[in-house]
Every structure is written in structure tokens, then in C-alpha cells.
Amino acid sequence: MRFRLPAVVFLSLCLGFLTLFGGGAAWAVDKSQLTYDDILNTGLANSCPEISSFTRGTIAVEPGAAYTVTDFCMEPRQFFVKEEPLNKRQEAEFVEGKLLTRYTTSLEQIRGQISVSQDGALTFKEQDGIDFQPVTVQLPGGEEVPFFFTIKSFVGKTEPGFTSINSSTDFVGAYKVPSYRGAGFLDPKARGVYTGYDNAVALPAVADAFKKTNVKQTPIGKGELSLQVTQVDGETGEIGGIFESVQPSDTDLGAKEPVDVKIRGVFYARVETDA
User: Fold this and answer.
1) Are residues 165 and 260 in the same domain?
2) pTM of the predicted model as reported, rounded to 2 decimal places
3) 82: phi > 0 → left, psi -120 to 50 → alpha, else beta; which?
4) pLDDT per position as a tens digit, 65-79
């Protein structure tokens, strides 16, 4: 009996070292194996699968070949809003905001394709999936900033010279940011783009000061995204890393000027060779 505690401690240390140095295999939470009660109110549905931080493999690529990206998931973890300074001599800075949207911020089940040019430059094109989420953050002063978190039609490229996807691969490019409100949305005065009134009556209908509020629009914005691959499992085709994007906020159907929103987080995906 007196040897039981030392034995348990020794076995725990051995298992810890095996886990730490046992090859760094990738792992991911398979949500399909969990029940509704396992996920309910836990936040797991909003979390992307993860890869061991010790995984540093490679996925070989060949010029002219195409590779399918599946299960692409982006989980935002920090939000910043660009605020204009009170002093004109100072430059605008990004201020971290508090997330008000709960458990519905991640993008997932996204598909895409990676192509390889003759000079070894990789191009990742997003195709479809759950690639948008309406999100709202609150600034320290209490102002709430809604925006349409998305990567629709993202096209990201790397520098030339790649023969594999590895921990030095960075995809940088632009994407489209649709309007936060749809064309069928009605404001409190029942004005909309193709439904409701086309403008307000009386003074607001003729005053130039209310023109932007009266004439509803659904402008398409532009975002910039950087995907930095940090973990690669060559056996399973899994990749993971961090991302940073900058995109415009909501314009209230063209009634106000958008502000820049910076999003930082992690991503996960699987890369498969096209037959």
C-alpha cells in the first residue's frame, strides 16, 4: 500500500511525457460523435477543431495541381474597432471591443480550392459554406458596433517558391463584405430597398440632410484577410493557424459611414488532393 502513491505519480509523469513528445499528432473534436445535450450551452458548437501545437509537418504540392479545402473553420477571439481620436494631431487607433454575440460567431463547413502556379505560388479561393455571421461588439464607451463577419469570395495568395504547405505558408488577399441588412429590411419608418416606402413623407423627404437615410442601399464592402498556417499534419491533411482580417462595419443601409473592424482568431481546415 505504501508504494501505491509513488507508482501513480510515476505513471502520470510517463503519460505526460508520452503526450508531450509522442509525435505531435493532430487531433480534432468530432462534433458528430457528441449528442445535443453534450453541446448545449457549452460553446463547443462555436469552437473550431484544434491541432496539437507540436505538429510541424508538411503537405507536398505540385505546380499545376489543385487541392480541395474542406471543413474550413474560422473562430474569432478578439475584436477591435478603429476609433477617430478627439485630438486631430493623433492618428486613429483600433480599440478592443467586448463581444455581445454569444456562440454564433464562427464560420464553418467552408469549402475552397488551392491551386499551385508554375513559380510555386499558392492561391486559395473560397467557394461556399457557412461563410458569414452577424456580430456585434461594444466599445469601452458603450457604443455598439454591428458588422457582417464573413470571407465571401476570398482569394488569398502566397509568395512564390513553395513546394509544400508548411508552417511558413501565409495566404493574404481580399474578400467581399455584403450589407449587414438585407434589401428586404424595413427601418422604423417602413423604408426599404425594394419593399416598404421609398422615402419618408413631409420634411425628411425633401431635406438633403436626410437624403442618406431616405435612400436605402446595400453596398458591398471589401475586407482584407491574412491566414497564417502554424500547424500541419501531413498524414491527415489537417492544417491550422491564426488569422487577422480588417473589414467595414454596418452602414445601416447606407445611412452612416462604416468604421474599420479588425478580427483576430484561429482557423482549421483539411486539404485533399483532387483526383
Assistant:
1) yes
2) 0.82
3) beta
4) 999 999 999 999 999
